[in-house]
Amino acid sequence: MEASIVTGRRFAGSRLRGLAGFTLIELMIVMSLIVILAGIGLTIYTNSVTRAKESVLKEDLFRMRDAIDQYYADKGKYPGNLQDLVSEKYIRAIPVDPFTHSADTWREVPSEPDPNNPTSQPGVYDVRSGSDLKAMDGTSYSEWD
Questions:
Q1: d(CA 144, CA 12)
Q2: Hey, is 135 helix, strand or coil?
Q3: Which parts of 1-145 are beta strand (E)?
Q4: CA-angle at 22, arms to 19 and 26, nearest 5°
Q5: Which uninterrupted H or E stretch holds 66?
Q6: Which residues lie closer than 8 Å to 94 by C-beta, 6 or more apart?
Q7: Closest to 79 in 3D by CA, of 66, 70, 68, 90
Q8: For 108-138, how does the pLDDT look when each residue is reduced to its tens digit (9 = 90+)?
Q9: pTM of the prediction?
């Protein structure tokens, strides 16, 4: 009887040793799943940041174009540059382009010369982003209307 008790203890002890840790394959599977989930999360985060920047760019372009139109409606001519919109209080400040991180990179599109007044200086008819990056839909930010 004593031999069966010792034998039983030996089996019980080895069983506990086998359950005390994880195998290398189990650890590799868990680490692989963590890496996959982190990659998916990073992709979703990056896309949401890009979408937010695109939304800010659309809003900035809309506001500046609206200010240019109001300037033209009030004065009968386009502003000489974007800084004129600030100095005449049509906008508080020139916004920072979310993709170039600068307020100095906006591309000013000049207006056509006035056929009734050929000596007048052309002004800023439109504004575009100075970024050369592509949007999520494949278009260039510098060509957005």
A1: 72
A2: coil
A3: 107-110, 124-128
A4: 130
A5: helix 24-75
A6: 64, 82, 83, 85, 86, 103, 106
A7: 68
A8: 999 888 777 777 788 999 999 999 999 999 9
A9: 0.76
